What does this fold into?
Amino acid sequence: MIQELPKISISLFPKSDFPNLLTLVNGQPLAYLDSAASAQKPHVATEATSMFVEHQYANVHRGVHTLSQLATDAYERVRDQVKVVLNAADRNEIIFTKGCTESVNLVAQSFARPMLRPGDEILLTELEHHSNIVPWQLVAQATGAKVVAARIHDNGELDLEDFKSKLNANTKIVAFTHISNALGTILPAKELTAMAHAVGATVLIDGAQSGPHAAIDVQDIGADFYVLSIHKMYGPTGVGVLFGKLNLLEAMPPYQGGGSMIRSVSFEETTFAELPAKFEAGTPNIAGVVGLGATLDYIAGKNWNRETWVNRISEIGDYEATVREYGVSLLAEIDGLTVHGDAEEMAGIISFTVKNAHPHDLGTILDQHGVAVRAGHHCCQPLMHRLGVPATARASIAAYNDLEDMDRLAAAVQSAKELFG
It folds into this structure.
């Protein structure tokens, strides 16, 4: 039974801005610690989406009537915003997709599949989400290429020597997560990209977890492709972003065919539209993209620019690190609890196991205390195998979490531990 519960928050983002956080769950105030799976949405963003659908909605592009032009302007404004968020060189380097997973698949099928040959290698890491493993396996099976994974150390850091040793003349694609969704490890994206480029490889970076927590500069990193998951950035579901260098996107064939992505069609031949339309077939998630724009305005304030965005995201990252550090210090006092992942650079994720308690059971008990965590392999089965555990419980921190959430997490875990003996 969920009911509303007014609550004063001292978090960086006021909990009162997120209606779903002001609830009772199983008779307890909600401590939502599952933002790495999907973040809660600020009211101003959902309200902006609703206002657009009710008062401005029409299909975008090609329409000559007023509503279509207003909708197109709103939609394309967000492309310009995302260009600033990523510091892309050209707005046409920003492609809207339905999610981070589709963005990876687009690159795998449109860029990698036509150029890979038997014996070529795709280098990943042991930290990867299934969405940055399976698409490359499918391409490898279709082309005769081989998927290789760089090892990690026991603390969750990437083994840079192993990564370097696995780069060679056969390495054509290097794909790695910027921030591990399961452990919170932050990888040295610029350094890894330079190492990959030194052997002539093309680099895709999975930014599903970095988008809401770290200032991203694709030009400084040197990334060839960079993907974002918008629902993890407090935005709507069903929206993703693919950044690709202009010359690469221009050379790639379309990923999907249909409306909007054509220049001309006959039964004999079709010619395709220029970027970004070439990769945005069909009617997009217009309302979702507009909601993304409102979310970015919420995060950084009205009339924000690159400098204010970087400052705000850096503030968020520092705040979340403080909350995480406090949470880890509390959990460390619980006998039989192991925190997995202790890299030098960590984001706001705490992945842990408790002796004699399966993470699924632990998550169920925590839910009875109103504490929402994720329990399972986190779509990282190879990583769980590397850690020697079937699953972990994961508390993921967002800017609306506070120290009280960590107190409640630790208290709930202690209660569960006593129950399991």
